[in-house]
């Protein structure tokens, strides 16, 4: 990992909160909580937290703490990941997060089945530095914890591939032994995930999740279909929301919806951008979260895309907007 990887910054916050909840000793010289609220933390800071966890409980404790993703429920990154409807969608969002920050490490799919994924955590093509086993376990912990928070059932993980024994998800001596074996064999960065098919009636749509941003576009003079699209985007701004999917949710043909919006000078893309920009503006003024995290969680492709679209809508960059109005 390089020190501009804001996924790691969110992970540091998660580990620090989990350590505090269990009364564990934090590493000396840790930045103040306000400093950890941003998008970037120094690489040494990240490693000092991981090493502090390892010193007090080994890899099993690290995996356990990284799974406690509910401790990040106020973070934009958490909300973005929780908008996923299933395990493949969650992985796609995680991979987009890695691309957003040009992470030195990435999670790649080596094989995929109807209800399984064989993954590898490795150095990004063209970069040096294989992830250390604890770094891979921390990423695995976050993915497992998010799967559990999404209500995925029958989840199992095999370190080293499906032919390896399943790792017990419950903390204990067997899990500790399994992790020690996987690390010794160099398998900590190879994971095979298996889960049970979802019960369609039990799947939680992003639109069912509480979201205080859901009314941000209600006052705009738009026709009803535009407001319905905006609400769908506002409930899950990190989602892709393709036009066909939006049209289907409204019970309309794609071309019919596009023609109707065009008569009002609108498009699905323009509505989504407006909704995402308004969500970003609210987070910029109401939270201390890093600008990069906010841009990712609002569904922008990368930092330049976020800056460009936000400036086009608001007349200034996200940084200048926060500086100008946060204290107002």
Structural summary, described in words:
This protein is α+β, with helices and mostly antiparallel strands and 328 residues long. 51% of the residues lie in helices and 9% in strands. The protein is built from 14 helices and five strands. It has helices at residues 6-21, 33-36, 43-66, 76-82, 87-100, 133-149, 173-184, 224-235, 243-249, 254-262, 268-286, 291-297, 303-314, 318-325; strands at 105-113, 116-123, 156-159, 166-167, 190-194. A hairpin with a 2-residue loop joins β1 (105-113) and β2. α1 crosses α3 and α11 (268-286) crosses α14. The model is unreliable at 1-6 and 200-208 (pLDDT under 50).
Summarize the entry for a quick read.
This protein has helices at 6-21, 33-36, 43-66, 76-82, 87-100, 133-149, 173-184, 224-235, 243-249, 254-262, 268-286, 291-297, 303-314, 318-325; strands spanning 105-113, 116-123, 156-159, 166-167, 190-194. By secondary structure, the chain is of the alpha+beta class. Strands 1-2-5-3-4 form a five-stranded antiparallel beta sheet.
Percent helix: 40-55%
What does the largest sheet look like? Answer: 5 strands, antiparallel
Say how many strands there are: 5
Q: What general form does the structure show?
A: globular
The whole-number mean of residue pLDDT values reads 89
Cα gyration radius (Å): 21 Å
Widest sheet: strand ordering: 1-2-5-3-4
Task: List the main descriptive attributes of the protein structure presented here.
five-stranded antiparallel beta sheet
């Amino acid at each position: 990992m390089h020190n501009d990887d804001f996924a790691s910054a969110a992970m540091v916050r998660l580990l620090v909160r989990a350590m505090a909840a269990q009364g564990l000793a934090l590493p000396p010289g840790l930045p103040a909580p306000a400093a950890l609220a941003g998008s970037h933390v120094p690489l040494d800071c990240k490693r000092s937290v991981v090493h502090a966890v390892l010193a007090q409980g080994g890899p099993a404790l690290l995996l356990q703490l990284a799974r406690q993703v509910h401790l990040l429920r106020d973070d934009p990154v958490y909300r973005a990941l929780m908008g996923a409807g299933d395990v493949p969608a969650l992985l796609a969002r995680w991979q987009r997060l890695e691309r957003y920050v040009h992470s030195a490490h990435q999670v790649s799919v080596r094989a995929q089945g109807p209800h399984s994924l064989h993954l590898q955590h490795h150095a990004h093509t063209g970069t040096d530095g294989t992830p250390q086993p604890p770094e891979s376990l921390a990423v695995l912990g976050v993915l497992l914890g998010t799967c559990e928070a999404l209500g995925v059932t029958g989840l199992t993980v095999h370190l080293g591939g499906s032919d390896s024994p399943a790792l017990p998800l419950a903390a204990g001596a067997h899990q500790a032994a399994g992790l020690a074996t996987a690390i010794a064999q160099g398998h900590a960065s190879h994971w095979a995930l298996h889960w049970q098919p979802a019960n369609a009636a039990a799947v939680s749509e992003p639109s069912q999740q509480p979201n205080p941003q859901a009314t941000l576009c209600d006052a705009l003079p738009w026709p009803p279909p535009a407001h319905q699209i905006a609400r769908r985007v506002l409930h899950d701004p990190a989602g892709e929301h393709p036009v066909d999917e939006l049209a289907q949710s409204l019970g309309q043909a794609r071309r019919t919806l596009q023609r109707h919006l065009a008569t009002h000078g609108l498009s699905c893309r323009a509505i989504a951008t407006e909704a995402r920009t308004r969500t970003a503006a609210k987070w910029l003024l109401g939270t201390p979260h890093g600008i990069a995290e906010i841009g990712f969680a609002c569904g922008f492709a990368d930092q330049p895309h976020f800056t460009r679209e936000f400036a086009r809508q608001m007349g200034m960059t996200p940084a200048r907007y926060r500086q100008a109005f946060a204290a107002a």
